[in-house]
Write a structure and sequence with these properties.
With 216 residues, the protein is an all-alpha fold. The protein has one domain. It is 80% helix and 0% strand. The chain is globular and about 50 Å long.
Length: 216
Amino acid sequence: MASERRRRNPVCYNRRMLRRVHPLILTAVFLAVALLVAGFGPRERSLGVSVRLVYLHGAWVWTALLGFAAAAVAGLAGLLFRRVDCQRVSIALGQAAMLFWVTYLPMSLLVMQATWNGLFLDEPRFRIGLDFALIAVLLQAGILLLDRPASASAVNIVYFAGLAWSLAASREVMHPASPIASSGWLALQAYFAGLTLICVAAGTQIARWLHRRLVA
């Protein structure tokens, strides 16, 4: 019977099978794949193999940013349509994005050392990342303690708006705006997009696990 259903609609069958796997197991799988893919990234003339850490760092940051954006969109939908389920999705996405944002900071230190031969902690982009990491931790802790989905959705909207504005208004001292997007190397751009999608898949599974805990 199961084999017959699998033959009729293999896509739906595979989706059901994935849902039965614990989200944290899938998270570990996706992260392992991301590390493997990053380890085989194209080299760069001046940085050599160290550029692979830069690729992973960039994908990590974009995963956090996309997570915060998704949390804001879900929160806005939840407030506009008064949907508590969307508001809880916003909470889960915001918490998952925070984990990626906070963990990208130590990765940034390694990237600084590899690319700039030193730690430049006053670099504007790093300062913004550190400041908003602290803010995110405090806000998400408050969201968990208060357990008010509507307020959490509003917080996620304001947080993402502030983060996006700060990044857009920041000065480019040593950190380039988007080196891969402006490289003109289509193969590298496709590789980076794939690596980012893998990290996003990992972040989605973390959000899925957090959402389960919220509605349990």
